[in-house]
């Protein structure tokens, strides 16, 4: 129904975001290495930029992985209790990160070399953990299981 369509579109959007972030990481690394070896002038803060982008890429793919049933799980924990635990952990991390992002914003925390503010990335990570919690709720109630192309191995 409508919820399935909404979740599918959100998952597609997150997949596109993850792909764009991966491409951005690649471009920063290519530019940094090229500038370093051809011009003897590396990009200031390229490592920090790569770290922030990597974090967002992984977190944007996390809900998508859960939705498609492609995450690693032990058969002992593949139960409703594990699903509830996932929801609780993801939601708790989202709340804690949101509060921490506020603290980072108040302190104007920035990366050492490039001066990149930390708060926007912490807020984004919080939202993505919240999305992972919502996907875990959806998976728990819809019973999403790994598809035949997921590479999952049944015990």
Structure description:
- The chain is mainly alpha-helical.
- Helices cover 72% and strands 0% of the residues.
- It has helices spanning 2-38, 46-67, 80-107, 119-142.
- Helix 3 runs antiparallel to helix 4 (119-142).
- The longest helix has 37 residues, at 2-38.
- The model is unreliable at 150-155 (pLDDT under 50).
Low-pLDDT ranges:
150-155
Got a strand count? Answer: 0
Approximate strand percentage:
under 5%
Mean pLDDT, to the nearest integer, reads 85
Note the main sheet: none
Q: Which structural class do you get from the secondary structure elements? A: mainly alpha
- Rg over CA atoms, rounded to whole Å, is 18 Å
C-alpha geometry = globular
Instruction: Tell me the number of helical segments per DSSP (H or I, 4 or more residues long).
Output: 4
What features would you highlight for this structure?
155 residues; 4 helices; mainly alpha
Question: Can I get a quick summary?
Answer:
With 155 residues, the protein is mainly alpha-helical. It is 72% helix and 0% strand. It is built from 4 helices and no strands.
Please give the structural blueprint.
Layout: H1 2-38, H2 46-67, H3 80-107, H4 119-142
Helix pairs in contact: 1-2, 2-4, 3-4
